[in-house]
Specification:
Length: 164
């Protein structure tokens, strides 16, 4: 009976133990991605916090500009749980919030709502995200997301204010 109980406790400990990859990856990360599509310039700033209790929050600030029209820092907030195993970063989304854009010029409310809903839908339609970790050290991390895009993160000391 003692052997069975000890074996069971050992298996539970192994199942819930942190992997060395998780210990290396937890912390605050940030990335900046710039792109141009049909004359629209897009800048995405991502702040990813991976906590040691396997919870995460992600703040995405999206800025768009085309001619005189622009949206600055449309804020998308995502939270949930994460795991890192076998060179993969997996996160499951539990909550999504799109509270505000910092500044908007020459864009009507309906267009802004549509833009916010597009980014929100990106996280709502796929609650489980599996990213391949291509590179990881104490200060840098490079992942390939489900779309095949490579994103480079740097370890961050700070995170945008107003956590949710």
């Amino acid at each position: 009976m003692i052997k069975i109980l000890t074996t069971l406790l050992l298996l539970i400990n192994i199942a819930f133990a942190k992997t060395p990859l998780e210990n290396t990856i937890e912390g605050k990360w940030h990335s900046i991605t710039r792109s141009v599509n049909n004359g629209t310039q897009t800048v995405e700033k991502e702040y990813l916090n991976l906590y040691n209790n396997n919870k995460f929050n992600l703040v995405l600030l999206v800025s768009l500009e085309k001619g005189d029209f622009f949206v600055k820092d449309l804020r998308i907030e995502v939270s949930g749980i994460w795991r890192a195993k076998y060179k993969s970063l997996i996160y499951i989304i539990e909550k999504i919030n799109v509270p505000v854009a910092k500044e908007v010029y020459r864009i009507n409310q309906q267009s802004l709502r549509n833009l916010a809903n597009n980014f929100k839908r990106m996280y709502e339609t796929n609650k489980i995200h599996i990213n391949k970790i291509n590179y990881l050290n104490s200060d840098k991390m490079t992942i390939v997301n489900e779309k095949g895009s490579e994103v480079s993160y740097s370890r961050s000391k700070s995170v945008p204010q107003r956590p949710f």
